[in-house]
Structures are given as C-alpha cells and as structure tokens.
C-alpha cells in the first residue's frame, strides 16, 4: 500500500502533501503562540507540544468538538496534523485554546515556503527518481499499472494453485467491505476508552468466542500473524518459567512433523531447539520424545506441536505426548496452522495444550489474500493468563487492558 501510494503521488505529489501538512502545523502553532501559549520545541514538522496550565479546560473544549489531543502529564498537550486535516479543522483546533467559541481569523499562507525545521534536516538530494514513480498519476493510469502487475502473478482467477498457502486464497466481498467503512476503519488506536465502547464489546466478545472454541481460559488479540502468535506464545511460556524461578528452562522440543516456522520462532524467543523424530506413518516417535524429555528435563521449556500435524495426521498419542512434557516440567505450545481441521471435533485445551495461536485469516477467513491483514491471536490456560502481552499505554480495551492491569498490579513501578 505504501509503495502504491508513492507510485500514485510521485515525488512532487508527496512533497506537496508534506508542505501542506507543514504549513497547517505552523499555522496552528503560530496562532496558539499568539494566544500566549509556549511550544516545547522550536522545530517541528507535523507535531507540536504546547505548554498549558489549563489542560482540563482545553481537553473539555476539544472533546466537545470531537477532537482528541495527546495529553502528556498535567501541563502538556500534543497536536499532530496529517493530510486528512482540512482548514475547518484548524479553526476547531485553535478554538480549543481560545476563551470563546467564535471562529478565529488567520492567514493560512503566512508561513508558506518557510518551515520550522533545522537546516540539517532539509533534504537537498533527489528521491523517487525511478520512472515508475513518475508515470502513473491519474486514476486510469494507476489502475492499468496495478492490472499490469496482477497479470504477472499466478492467481485463482486465472489458474489452479497447487499450494495451500493462506495468502493465495480469496475472500468474499462481504468480508472485505467493512474495511472501507469510515465508522469501522478510522478509529485511532489510542482514543479514550469511553469513546471505544463498540470496539471493546467486539474485542471482548471475540476473545470469549475464541476461548470457548479452543477450550482455553484467556486470549490476547495482539499478534497480527501466525508467526507473531508463535513468538508471543513462546514469550508467554518463557515469562511463566521465569516467574516460577526457572529462567534456565530454554529447551524447546519440536517434532520434525511440526509447522516449519516453529524452529525459527523458538530461536527468536531465545530458546534451544531439539528435534523429535517421526515414525514412517507420520506420527511423533513417542519413545524418542520420552528419551529427549528425560535428557533435557532440567532445562525443558516445552514442546511445539502441530495438530493435526503437517503430514495431515491426527496424532492418536497426542494426550500422552503432552502429558510426557508436563511431567518433565514443560509447557505445550500448539501451532494453530491447521486449527480448521479441529473446529467442531476437538480443541487444543482438551488435548492438553497450554497455549495456541489461531490463524484467523485461515480458520475463520478474515480478509487476508492479496495483502490483507493477518491475525494470529493466542489463547492460553489460566496459569499463563497473567503472562499474556500487555501494553505500555493505559486505556487499552479488552484482554490487553486486563493483562496490563495484572502486570501493573504485580509490578507497580511499571
């Protein structure tokens, strides 16, 4: 999307957008300064921070006009301007710093051509010089260029694809349409909680549904892909072991039949990978598992399994496998890549897993193919719930907020 944005606007278009943003930000800054307020920084591009003793009054006036500033402590107000801002918005922003609600008067072109940037940051070298960024600047040209690129690819509208990758499947138009709804897509991720009641209800309900489907107790919707879900799940296991006084538990058993990304995720999480053999029929070699679980018992962090396995096999010994790991002090991470083969039949929590990620873009067909969003939330058993990912900012809704509250309760200095 960023690349196509640059192709469509080109270097001149991007510069024009940046100049407009800079002029608007400077206009707001100048008018606020004229009303007796001081800026924290002499230099800025699109964001200013204003010193103000009457932050509560400013906030009340801003929220009455459906404007959210960023409030830093008790006496600082952050304001960011982007390309969605129009002149009428500037009036509303400036009026938040007025003693009345009458429209203010200002000259939008007063600072045109001069920018509050240090000389060292003024770019003088050319950029986006390739022809592709200097050709397709109308809607018809852009559509033809994108179609030209599409025709180079193998896709479901021209051929059968021999791979089962989720990035090669189609989604129904009814699944894609909501992404274009302004009342759905335009919410800022850090709006005050009281402004996001609908989103909180959606997040809480989805978390509840996923816990019921997986037979787990808690959920985090933060990971944005299966790979991120694996990483977050392993870090949750790692945090659990550390909290139990076992930071040395860093060995992760991974059957050769597990999903191919598992070893990479384990290494990224700082763990040592030990491969478990498979039998000729694709089943995990239980005897090899027992031997290696015993060999690494003192340092065993857990096992990563895929169920059904990458070989397409429902391991009949899966409960025994998970119990062996538990008996040696490890946790069971179940890769959710094949979760669609479980839904309605069984669940990770029922077979002894402790944590599992869900590829919602596979199992539940959220918009994904062709560059859409991935989604890889993790669900966990109760004993891991407090170690789910949190967030550094207050006011986040849903499970993430609850996890943050748990974190700050344990570590008040956070």
**How many domains make up the 3D coordinates?**
2
CATH fold descriptor of the largest domain: Aspartate Aminotransferase, domain 2
Assign the CATH superfamily of the largest domain.
Type I PLP-dependent aspartate aminotransferase-like (Major domain)
Strand tally, please? 11
Q: What share of the residues does DSSP label as strand, in percent? A: 5-15%
* Adjacency order of strands in the biggest sheet: 5-11-10-9-8-6-7
Structural class: alpha/beta
Q: Would you give an account of this structure?
A:
With 414 residues, this protein is of the alpha/beta class. The protein contains 13 helices and eleven strands. The strands form two sheets. Strands 5-11-10-9-8-6-7 form a seven-stranded mixed β-sheet, sandwiched between helices. Strands 1-2-4-3 form a four-stranded antiparallel β-sheet, with helices on one face. A hairpin with a 3-residue loop joins strand 3 (70-72) and strand 4 (76-80). It starts with a helix and ends with a helix. The model is unreliable at 395-414 (pLDDT under 50).
Supply the key terms:
disordered C terminus; alpha/beta; 13 helices; Aspartate Aminotransferase, domain 2; Aspartate Aminotransferase, domain 1; four-stranded antiparallel sheet; 11 strands; 414 residues
């Amino acid at each position: 999307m960023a690349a196509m944005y640059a192709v469509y606007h080109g270097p001149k278009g991007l510069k024009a957008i940046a100049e407009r943003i800079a002029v608007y930000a400077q206009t707001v800054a100048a008018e606020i300064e004229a009303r007796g307020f001081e800026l924290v920084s002499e230099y800025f591009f699109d964001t200013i921070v204003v010193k103000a003793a009457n932050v509560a009054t400013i906030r009340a006036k801003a929220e009455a006009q459906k404007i959210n500033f960023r409030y830093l402590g008790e006496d600082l107000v952050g304001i960011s301007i982007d390309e969605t801002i129009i002149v009428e918005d500037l009036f509303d922003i400036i009026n938040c710093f007025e003693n009345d609600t009458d429209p203010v008067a200002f000259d939008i072109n007063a600072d045109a051509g001069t920018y509050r940037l240090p000389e060292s940051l003024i770019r003088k070298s050319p950029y986006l010089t390739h022809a592709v960024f200097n050709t397709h600047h109308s809607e018809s040209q852009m559509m033809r260029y994108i179609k030209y690129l599409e025709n180079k690819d193998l896709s479901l509208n021209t051929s059968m694809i021999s791979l089962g990758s989720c990035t090669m499947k189609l989604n129904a138009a009814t699944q894609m349409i909501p992404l274009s709804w302004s009342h759905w897509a335009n919410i800022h991720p850090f709006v005050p909680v009281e402004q996001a009641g609908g989103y909180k209800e959606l997040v809480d309900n989805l978390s509840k549904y996923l816990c019921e489907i997986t037979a787990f107790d808690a959920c985090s919707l933060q990971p944005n892909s299966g790979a991120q879900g694996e990483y977050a799940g392993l870090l949750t296991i790692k945090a659990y072991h550390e909290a139990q006084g076992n930071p040395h538990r860093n060995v992760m058993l991974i059957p050769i039949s597990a999903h191919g990304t598992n070893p990479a995720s384990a290494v990224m999480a700082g763990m040592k990978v030990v491969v478990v053999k498979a039998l000729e029929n694709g089943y995990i070699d239980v005897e090899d598992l027992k031997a290696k679980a015993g060999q690494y018992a003192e340092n065993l962090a857990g096992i990563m399994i895929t169920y059904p396995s990458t070989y397409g096999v429902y391991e009949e010994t899966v409960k025994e496998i998970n119990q062996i790991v538990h008996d040696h002090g490890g946790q069971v991470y179940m890769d959710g890549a094949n979760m669609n083969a479980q839904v309605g039949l069984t669940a990770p929590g029922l077979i002894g897993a402790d944590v599992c990620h869900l590829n919602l873009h596979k199992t539940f067909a959220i918009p994904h193919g062709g560059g859409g969003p991935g989604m890889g939330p993790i669900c966990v058993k109760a004993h891991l719930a407090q170690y789910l990912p949190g967030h550094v900012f207050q006011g986040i809704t849903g499970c993430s907020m609850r996890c943050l509250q748990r974190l700050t309760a344990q570590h008040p200095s956070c």
